[in-house]
Design a protein that fits this description.
By secondary structure, the chain is an alpha/beta fold. 35% of the residues lie in helices and 14% in strands. It contains 21 helices and 14 strands. Helix 3 runs antiparallel to helix 5, helix 11 packs parallel to helix 12 and helix 12 runs parallel beside helix 14. The longest helix has 16 residues.
Length: 535
């Protein structure tokens, strides 16, 4: 059976064209794989108008290019069907185009399974992203090109690595699906061996150097490659993806389950001028990161709060995350166009609309509102002297201005466990005040400094290297950088105002190595945040 190979060359960055793999680029390595696929009859590259020239420089004759100004899911499946119609191929082998570790053996196994069992859709399960393609039967492609037209929540979204499965799973029982299952489940590491963005590119380059020490047989074994990645600090930890910054030193109420007031933190709010300089450093280190303003304190209390948010979204790749107990909205505020808060929020909403989409997959601004209860009585246990209606009204108003990017957040503890189901049933509905967006937050006892009040143990059976050491960068209002959020007020590992951010981030490598070696210090052993993952 003949196959049409379609490679999707995203325009996320130019890292895929860097000659970092023995003089070859990730794009070159992916093309080599495509040409060696045993059933390959034709190869076609889908790209953008703004990277078409770069794509064509790397292509040999006989490989066609299809360029668009933008690629939505609807366009992708329509063009895939059109490409198949022109060819004499029975199925599509689809992959993104910047995957230096895409594996030939795994591809062959998928092809054999797909053809033997006459599958409509075949994929590898439990492997890292970008080491295998997806296989789609000709008939399935035609079905998907029509099905996507009925999915209003998917059709206009930009193409992502999960676009194919996201559509298939909307009616998954209607299709014949086969999988190639990994002997080790690598998903908990969230490896992405592609060169689409800086943090993944650095990991790929470091991994490529690491596996040079392996024999030829082991370099062809994807399990051995993944094992090498799992054991290497320079692959697990490249650059921060999440910057958690304290701009405010006060909260609206003293939550008894927040440790902030147990310690002596910064005495002054972060100045806007200091923040602007910090953002320049952050953008230089990782221009596609998420910047939270909520490490400690409620950021909306800062007198220049709106200036901080606008400054973040001036950078085309950064996303601003705001976690708050909410604005003190009254019904009069909500219905009035003259409220200062409403005026500022509307102005910010306009800035967000003009800011454009972020290539990190998030909106320019994300809101997390601490609702935490369904009754005033329970809410007061977590937020003394505060009104639940303020938090609810905040969700309502913000979602009217930042639709789809406002999450009602529920800290799950023993005190409010009895209202969790009611919260879930209400906030999961798309016609409710948050539009179906909500987060159930795990309780953190801060290395047993706080009382143990979590109502469920979600920790994995086998401990993984800490996600927060791998990708978080915390900055207090005075610029001090703690090892992690749970150790915010212990000896800092640097000052973000005064030092290079990358140098500070690398100082924690020795701690992460103890996680890899499973020789953790007492502080890390007492922490159960290691498996939680921030935006």
């Amino acid at each position: 059976m003949k196959s049409l190979i379609i490679l999707f060359a995203d325009n996320f960055s130019s890292f895929g064209f860097e000659n970092s793999f023995d003089g070859k680029s990730a794009f070159d390595k992916t093309l080599e794989w495509a040409k060696n696929v045993k059933t390959a009859s034709e190869i076609e590259v889908y790209c953008f108008e703004d990277n078409k020239e770069l794509v064509q420089k790397h292509l040999e004759k006989g490989i066609s290019v299809k360029a668009k100004g933008s690629w939505t899911n609807e366009i992708l499946f329509s063009e895939m069907a059109a490409s198949l119609k022109k060819s004499n191929c029975e199925y599509v082998i689809f992959s993104f185009a910047f995957n230096p570790f895409i594996n030939q053996t795994l591809t062959t196994n998928l092809i054999d399974t797909h053809e033997k069992f006459k599958s409509e859709y075949s994929f590898a399960d439990g492997y890292p992203v970008s080491v295998s393609p997806e296989l789609l039967d000709r008939g399935l492609v035609n079905i998907l090109s029509e099905l996507i037209k009925t999915k209003d929540d998917l059709k206009q979204q930009a193409v992502t690595k999960s676009s194919v499965f996201d559509l298939i799973k909307t009616d998954i029982n209607s299709f014949e699906i086969e999988t190639e299952i990994s002997t080790t489940d690598w998903r908990l590491y969230r490896f992405d061996f592609s060169c689409d963005k800086k943090e993944n590119y650095i990991a790929c380059v470091n991994l490529y150097e690491k596996i040079k020490k392996l024999c030829d047989e082991d370099r062809a074994d994807i399990q051995k490659i993944c094992g090498a990645a799992r054991d290497d600090v320079k692959v697990l930890k490249t650059i921060p993806g999440y910057f958690n910054i304290q701009i405010e030193i006060e909260y609206q109420s003293k939550n008894p389950y927040c440790p902030y007031y147990k310690f002596s933190g910064p005495e002054e709010k972060m100045s806007f001028e200091k923040f602007k300089g910090l953002l320049e450093k952050i953008n230089e280190l990782n221009p596609d990161s998420v910047v939270s303003l909520s490490l400690w304190g409620d950021p909306v209390l800062h007198p220049q709060f709106f200036d901080f948010v606008k400054e973040v979204i001036k950078y085309p790749g950064l996303t601003c995350l705001i976690e708050t107990d909410g604005f003190k909205f009254s019904e009069n505020d909500i219905s009035s166009d003259n409220s200062d808060i409403i005026i500022n929020l509307k102005a910010l909403s306009e800035c967000v609309q003009n800011a454009g989409l972020r290539k990190n997959g998030f909106a320019p601004v994300l809101w997390l509102i601490n609702v935490d209860a369904m009754t005033q009585q329970t809410y007061e246990k977590l937020h003394p002297q505060m009104k639940l209606e303020y938090a609810v009204n905040t969700v309502k108003v913000l979602n009217s201005l930042f639709n789809g990017n406002v999450y009602a957040q529920y800290l799950r503890i023993t005190e409010n466990e009895g209202e969790l189901e009611a919260f879930y049933r209400a906030y999961k509905e798309k016609d409710y005040i948050s539009g179906g967006k909500f987060i159930i937050q795990k309780y953190d006892h801060f290395c047993k400094v706080m009382p143990e009040v979590k109502s469920a143990d979600l920790s994995p059976i086998e401990r993984n290297p800490c996600w927060h050491l791998r990708r978080d960068f915390n900055i207090l209002a005075d610029g001090k950088v703690p090892v992690c959020r749970d150790k915010s007020f212990e000896n800092p590992c640097g000052n973000a105002f005064e030092e290079d951010l990358s140098a500070i981030f690398d100082r924690n490598n020795t701690i992460l190595q103890t996680h890899i070696d499973k020789k953790l210090c007492e502080g890390c052993l007492s922490c159960d945040e290691y498996y939680t993952y921030n935006f």
